[in-house]
Recover the amino acids of this structure.
């Protein structure tokens, strides 16, 4: 349990309920082993062997947290992108620089928070302006609006690079 706690801390998963849950599962497995006629020591060794090494268990919990984080970041990217596209589509809005900068900064923040999928955050932030252009004016020329994806791509990859420089153990 001490090794598991250390491995969880190393992966920045600081949740006491995880340790209690693991302890409970191991206790149940030991109890089932003793009911099957094993000695307490044999049942304990068998339960630990079936459950996995502390490194494996900690990695599984960290991966689960990572999946949840990526879902949240994807929703944030889409909401951010839709908000930017909405403002950009207003007839009174005429500041391309602010739009490009906002896309870059939003994607950079997402790349910093989730460095494993910068392309996805860039797409979630930047695709909505070209989509709006294609819906409004369906023509091959509207496809040129895909060039705006350069800004969120640059931002997301910059955020990823900063994360890897600042916190290399987390990336």
């Amino acid at each position: 349990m001490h090794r598991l706690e250390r491995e969880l801390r190393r992966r920045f998963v600081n949740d006491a309920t995880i340790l209690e849950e693991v302890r409970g599962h191991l206790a149940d497995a030991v109890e089932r082993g003793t009911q099957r006629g094993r000695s307490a020591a044999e049942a304990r060794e068998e339960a630990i062997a079936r459950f996995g090494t502390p490194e494996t268990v900690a990695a599984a919990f960290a991966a689960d947290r990572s999946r949840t984080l990526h879902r949240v970041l994807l929703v944030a990217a889409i909401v951010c992108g839709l908000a930017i596209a909405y403002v950009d589509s207003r007839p009174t809005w005429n500041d391309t620089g602010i739009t490009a900068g906002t896309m870059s900064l939003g994607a950079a923040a997402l790349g910093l928070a989730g460095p494993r999928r910068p392309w996805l955050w860039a797409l979630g932030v930047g695709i909505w302006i070209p989509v709006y252009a294609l819906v409004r004016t369906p023509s091959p020329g509207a496809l040129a609006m895909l060039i705006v994806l350069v800004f969120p791509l640059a931002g997301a990859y910059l955020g990823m690079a900063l994360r890897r420089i600042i916190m290399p153990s987390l990336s």
